[in-house]
Design goal:
412 residues, globular, mainly alpha
């Protein structure tokens, strides 16, 4: 049997198109949220699609059909409980929380919960398996990376770390957003079709170039993982002549992109930073586990002002406000119960993704691997207003929770 990254798409791709206006609104609101969040600077534009489109369509879908179905998903409920525990931790934070802070965290909690619910619904409805999903996210990635690289060259910023427009303007999460969006776009592509293979390969070149110029190690590792997989897919599904044309075209694009900079300088700068004291930060954090083990310090507590922060400063000379690891941050903020919930989520999703992989459907395992990879070294804040964490964490997690739960239900 030929290699199939997304076998279920190949069997019945057309059955996943939106079936009513609410589903159509949810799909286009989400995709335009992505497009405008990484291609332009005005936050109000992409946030408008969240508040005017995603929220009302999600509520309508839940009320009319999916609320009971979602409530039966244990992995979905585990994440809602995780958000609730992290939100509740503001009330036992060591730092005084005034009314304004409480209102702000309450708003962030509600917005984040709705967004995760919306993406889970999105996947349960199969909207992530439509060509609209695949092509529009691919277009967003290509446009944002071209804008970023062009601006970088025009302003002669090399060898500084490159950033991009909108939510890509932060050095740390920018590359994570790009590689995660690229991977989830594949659920809507037909990777047996030469046009889709060429499209995804071309965009992967731009994604890799962006990550190299941004000099982020974890996302670069995920991009490096993507290349042998894409080459294998191309070799299995393209004829010799088409494969040769595809390889030649992508090589030319790669050479053009790489010619804008001295790659050795970029690699030297990444090596020079090493692990940026991360192992020392993790060690200092875990050495003070008594401060957060059971109930955490609360998300309203600046970690830099705790014993953990002072221990980190003693170790590396600088205090940090988070431990540079998502899973450890959840433990520090919410305690052992929150850490148990996020661990249970990823173990459950891993098990289900492996089951799917046995049926030659590898995309869920690929998304999960990418998500874990980008969360190991930097991100820490799971509750917030519509921002970077929505794209590189809650979007792939929602798609995994919705699609794997849906798969299990259909198989029964």
């Amino acid at each position: 049997m030929p290699f199939s990254l997304n076998a279920e798409i190949q069997k019945n791709h057309t059955s996943f198109y939106p079936k009513n206006k609410a589903q159509l609104t949810l799909q286009w609101s989400f995709l335009l949220f992505i497009l405008f969040s990484i291609t332009q600077e005005n936050d109000d534009i992409f946030r408008a699609f969240y508040f005017v489109g995603i929220i009302p369509s999600t509520i309508y879908i839940l009320i009319n059909d999916h609320l009971y179905k979602m409530a039966k998903s244990r992995v979905f409920l585990a994440n809602i409980l995780l958000l609730s525990v992290l939100y509740s931790s503001i009330y036992w934070s060591t730092a005084p929380i005034n009314t304004y802070e409480t209102i702000r965290y309450t708003r962030w909690f509600i917005e984040t919960t709705i967004f995760f619910t919306a993406i889970t619904c999105y996947a349960r409805l199969g909207l992530h398996k439509t060509t609209t999903h695949g092509y529009l996210i691919q277009a967003s990635i290509i446009l944002s990376t071209i804008i970023s690289i062009t601006t970088y060259i025009t302003n002669s910023e090399f060898p500084a770390r490159m950033t991009g427009p909108g939510l890509l303007d932060d050095i740390i999460p920018g590359s994570s957003i790009i590689i995660v969006l690229w991977v989830i776009s594949l659920t809507g592509l037909n990777l047996k079709d030469r046009k889709d293979i060429f499209l995804s390969s071309t965009s992967l070149i731009l994604v890799t170039a962006y990550i190299l110029l941004n000099q982020s190690r974890a996302p670069l590792g995920m991009a490096a993982l993507a290349w042998p997989i894409m080459i294998f897919i191309a070799s299995k599904n393209l004829k010799t002549k088409t494969l040769a044309i595809t390889i030649t075209s992508t090589t030319i694009i790669a050479l053009i992109v790489l010619s804008i900079s001295d790659l050795s300088i970029v690699i030297h700068k990444m090596n020079e930073r090493g692990m940026s004291y991360r192992p020392a930060i993790w060690e200092a954090t875990l050495a003070n586990y008594n401060e957060f083990f059971w109930h955490g310090i609360g998300i309203g507590t600046p970690m830099s002002e705790t014993k953990i922060g002072y221990a980190i400063k003693e170790s590396i000379g600088v205090r940090h406000n988070h431990p540079h690891n998502l899973f450890l941050s959840v433990w520090v903020h919410g305690g052992i119960f929150a850490f148990g919930l996020i661990t249970l989520t990823f173990l459950t999703l891993t098990y289900r993704a492996i089951i799917r992989a046995k049926n030659k459907d590898y995309i869920h395992l690929w998304i999960l691997t990418t998500l874990i990879g980008v969360c190991m070294t930097d991100p820490y804040k799971l509750i917030g207003s519509p921002q970077e964490v929505y794209l590189f964490f809650w979007t792939p997690l929602g798609i995994l929770c919705g699609s794997l739960t849906r798969t299990q239900r259909l198989s029964r």
